[in-house]
Amino acid sequence: MIVGEKQVKSIIVKSDLPACEFSVNPYVGCEHACKYCYACFMKRFTGHDETWGDFVDVKFWEPVKNPQKYCGKELFIGSVTDPYQPAEEKYGRTRALLEELRGSGAKISIATKSDLILRDLELIKTFPNARVSWSVNTLDENFKNDMDNGVSIERRLRAMKIFHDAGVRTTCFISPIFPAITDVRAVIEKAKERCNLIWLENLNLRGTFKPSVMKYISNNYPEFMPLYRSIYVCGDNTFWEMLDSDLRGFAKEQGLEYKVNDDGFNRPFDAPPVIVNFFYHSKIKKSAQKNDKSF
Ligand code: SF4
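That is the input. Now the predicted structure with iron/sulfur cluster docked in place:
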């Protein structure tokens, strides 16, 4: 792992992502090295030749001026790369940011694949209506290990429960859903008692990672190749339409609300989680690609 340090002018940037006004990414590059990572586009802008997942730049910034100006604003920490990737254990830049914003009244949301965030639970609890999401796209640890270097699914779900029990709003982000591999129903059943939101996002294969993911499927799940070709070569959406329909029925059986392209943020904490389908929502990725200008 090549770790660099860099000084940036400011760390909080305006965002045009849906449901957030500002975004923050304390790290460039990501040690989790997910095979399907759309953030690898960042290599182009940062002068890195290394393979995605082999480098991380740690950002240092001038003190945040007048943190109170973020009072009531939605601030997304980790819109591009994981703010609790392993480098955070040593450098603590995400924690440093939270310390700077403590008491500002900012409405933070944090996305991660790590349980290192447990270290900062007490600090995160000081933010009004803080939200934390964990990506869980399988319960199969072997498949997870093939896909990413994040902590185990068991550890993510444990962290989700601890935050939820502590009164912090949690999201189980079932993303990306791999056709015929991700058992969405099983993940929902496992997560529903420990989260406020369940977000669904389909696997998109548009980036440079498309050939490697297709090769992985071909080598490991050859029986699914006709399906993957129909979706990712021929552009057939039938699979997603059928899954959408199946999950609507499943949500009803489970007594859970099911929505499309709605963040579902404004629910009472004690209400059962709402399932939100983002299958047809490509704006998040396009926006994210324009999003992080702080490197
Ligand atoms: S955790 Fe997120 S940013 Fe990091 S490699 Fe995986 S998908 Fe990319």
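Confidence is low (pLDDT under 50) at residues 283-295.
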